[in-house]
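Sequence design from tokenized structure. All designs in this work follow the same two-part layout: the structure record, then the generated sequence. An example of the structure record is given first.
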């Protein structure tokens, strides 16, 4: 079976698996695509939705791109495709949205084929919305498919997960990501390729975005700031004021990676264990003086802060950052 030419290479295994299920007529009515942000889960979901809705798929595997159904979908007006998503990024998918979908779910497909519901991100379904959806997942009706995108590390409600089949999308290996990145951005510096790949936990599309946003420069500034605080060259509030203008979740995610390295270094005293080798000197200086309990405390607090910010809870980010940075200052 041929994989889709349009999908990036690391999605081909999953796509082949879905094609097999389609051909064998055992594609589940509830399918969760689960994995890190930046792996192309949405692209995979759209490819599958296109195939399900197409009237004349090419050799049963690929949407044709030319039939009426494909044209309607491309125009964003396919009557048998529904998208369940929050009103704004970071908000929940609420029960009213699921209720509004019910008459559509009860009706037959207008184009005479399948009906597809794309739910993104499925981890933003709140408990009431999820409960309202359970019956639909259990008795989906003929030719009705739910495709749910689950972004790590946020959890997916167990009630939803248990009623679906989960397809986990794995990142490709570092050896594979770097040539791919270079293909997309031929002028990129080799050291940046390695760095963005680490910064994105190996997820190629996020790494590419980091490369294009010049995230290594921002990351470098974050490192300079952390060093300056320890040397009493910058104040905690000054740094927090700068950071609050940057994409805070990214900043905290990188900081967490360094704290992980710091913990590894303290536990093993082996610099080879440090993933972010460009930070070794700073980490060694901190590791010599800091209490490991305090480092664990800061790690947990940073993780919690990242979670609150990702969920857009009503919080004062400046204050939160000041608190974390003060704990950092106190480490040595
Ligand atoms: Zn078609």
């Amino acid at each position: 079976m041929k994989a889709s030419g349009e999908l990036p290479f690391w999605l081909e295994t999953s796509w082949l698996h879905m094609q097999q299920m389609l051909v064998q007529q055992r594609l589940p009515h509830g399918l969760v695509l689960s994995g890190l942000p930046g792996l192309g889960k949405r692209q995979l979901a759209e490819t599958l939705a296109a195939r399900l809705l197409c009237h004349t798929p090419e050799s049963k595997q690929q949407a044709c791109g030319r039939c009426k159904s494909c044209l309607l979908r491309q125009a964003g007006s396919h009557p048998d495709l529904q998208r369940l998503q929050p009103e704004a990024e970071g908000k929940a998918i609420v029960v009213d949205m699921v209720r509004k979908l019910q008459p559509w779910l009860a009706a037959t497909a207008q184009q005479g084929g399948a009906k597809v519901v794309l739910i993104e991100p499925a981890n933003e379904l709140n408990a009431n919305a999820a409960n309202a959806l359970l019956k639909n997942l259990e008795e989906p009706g003929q030719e009705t498919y739910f495709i749910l995108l689950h972004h790590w590390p946020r959890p997916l409600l167990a009630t939803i997960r248990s009623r679906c089949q989960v397809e986990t999308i794995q990142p490709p290996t570092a050896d594979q990501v770097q040539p791919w990145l270079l293909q997309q951005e031929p002028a990129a510096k080799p050291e940046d390729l390695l760095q963005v790949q680490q910064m994105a936990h190996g997820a190629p599309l996020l790494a590419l975005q980091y490369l294009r946003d010049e995230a290594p420069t921002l990351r470098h500034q974050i490192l300079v700031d952390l060093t300056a605080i320890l040397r009493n060259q910058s104040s905690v509030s000054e740094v927090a004021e700068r950071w609050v203008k940057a994409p805070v979740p990214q900043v905290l995610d990188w900081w967490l990676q360094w704290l992980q390295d710091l913990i590894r270094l303290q536990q093993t005293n082996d610099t080879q264990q440090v993933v972010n080798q460009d930070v070794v000197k700073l980490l060694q200086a901190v590791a010599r003086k800091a209490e490991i309990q305090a480092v664990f405390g800061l790690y947990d607090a940073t993780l919690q802060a990242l979670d609150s910010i990702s969920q857009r809870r009503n919080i004062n980010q400046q204050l939160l950052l000041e608190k974390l940075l003060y704990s950092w200052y106190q480490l040595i």
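The chain has 15 helices and five strands. We note this feature because it recurs in several other targets discussed in the main text.
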